[in-house]
Amino acid sequence: MLDFLLTSDAIMALLTLTFLEIILGIDNIVFISIAANKLPESQRNKATNIGLIAAMLQRIVLLFFVSFLVGLSEPFYTFDSSWLQIGISWQAIILFGGGLFLIYKSTSEIREKVEDPSHDENEVKGRKIKSLKQAIVQIMIIDFIFSIDSILTAVGMTNGLHENHNYNLVLMIIAVVISIGIMIGFANPIRKFIDSHPSVQLLGLAFLILIGFMLITEAAHLSGAKFFGNAVGAIPKGYLYFAITFSLFVEFLNFRIAKKKKNK
């Protein structure tokens, strides 16, 4: 296990996944803050911390469930025709459906953030909260909605890293625990940074589109799909790491240029 966690692929996957989990968690932090702010001052910190810890536990449970389904790689139905050959398994269905969901969700989020940034916040603000219990329940519901793309991203980044799915599961759990821990300790600074640099969150959503496409191709590859006799190949994760690293480097240069202009 330790040998796997210290490999370059596992370390890169962990760093990238932790970064994306934090980016995906920004909206969650905003919504938790809105829900907590409806409570008396003495209960706000308690609601925020309980909400984030409950969110972490909820995501770990979902990781076990999704990882179990992804582990079911044996085809239960085979389709064979003159133009398409494919073996359909639960693994392929989860990866393919997850890829489509990530592309749809990310595209919708980008559109909302560009055209109506306060849409989701206004919906949460309109809900009444009278007690700590109600706040926790609402936080759990909100986090469940936002956990889906988080879990699918984790599966996409770790699937295929190791033949033993339990090793990949441990890596995903570590990333979730680290990201939630960072959010608990630095929730407000992270939120303020993203508010002042919204391009970082849009960049994270753009990465999810890439991961969604990668999940779709991986589903086809693992199903042994062939279109007109041509097999579908898996996209090496190194390409994704390069795209993310290069994009972040460009964004860093933009920060530096903007900061120098501001100082002048």
Question: What descriptive keywords fit this protein?
Answer:
mainly alpha, four-stranded antiparallel sheet, 264 residues
Can you put this structure into words, describing what you see?
The protein has 264 residues and is mainly alpha-helical. The longest helix has 32 residues, at 165-196. Strands 1-2-3-4 form a four-stranded antiparallel beta sheet. The chain has one domain (2-263). The relative contact order is 0.18. β1 and β2 (84-88) form a beta hairpin. The chain contains nine helices and four strands; from the N terminus they run αααββαααααββα. α2 packs across α8.
**Radius of gyration from CA coordinates:** 20 Å
Shape: globular
Instruction: Tell me the structural class.
Output: mainly alpha
Low-confidence stretches: none
Q: How is the largest sheet built, in terms of strand order?
A: 1-2-3-4
Topology as H/E string? HHHEEHHHHHEEH
The major β-sheet equals:
4 strands, antiparallel
Short description:
This protein is mostly helical and 264 residues long.
